[in-house]
Each structure stands twice: as structure tokens, then as C-alpha cells.
Amino acid sequence: MQSKIPAPKRQDFNKCCKMGTHKHQIPMPIKGRVRGIDYCIADIVAALNAANIITVASCCGHKKIDGIISLEDGRELIIKNNRNKIDA
After folding, report:
1. Whole-model pTM?
2. Is 41 strand, coil or helix?
3. Where do the domains of the chain lie?
4. What pLDDT score was predicted for residue 1?
């Protein structure tokens, strides 16, 4: 039986937790391991992996810095945040 990964609620996409915490993450299976992915970038990470663009690390930036998604092939995607529009 396959376990269900809970989908993030729409209101959670603008929530952000402090760096180093895992309060607003969802579990996502990537290459046989379950990883905690920040809610606000989970849809992007899921789409990349579904397209066989494997991610190895990610962070939304927690309203402090720009987010990043590191890919298996060494590339990195930068997620520019408009920190003025995000409410905690």
C-alpha cells in the first residue's frame, strides 16, 4: 500500500518558519528517500522531480534570503522572493 503525502493547504504557501526549523515542510519522496520540503516551494520541487529533473536540496529562503533548489546535475535554481509581499 502506497502512503499518501499530504498536499499543502493553499494558505500555507505564504507561511514561513525560521531557518533551521521544519514547521512548514511537507514530506516528499525523492529518489527513494523522504525529504522535508518547504511548503512555499513544494509545488516547484514536485514538478521538477516529476519531469525527471532530480533535486538534491532546497530552501525557500525563509523571507531572509532568496530561495534555492539544487539539482542533481550541479545546477542551482534561484527563487527570487518579494519579501514585502509574504506574510508570516
Report:
1. 0.71
2. helix
3. 10-79
4. 44
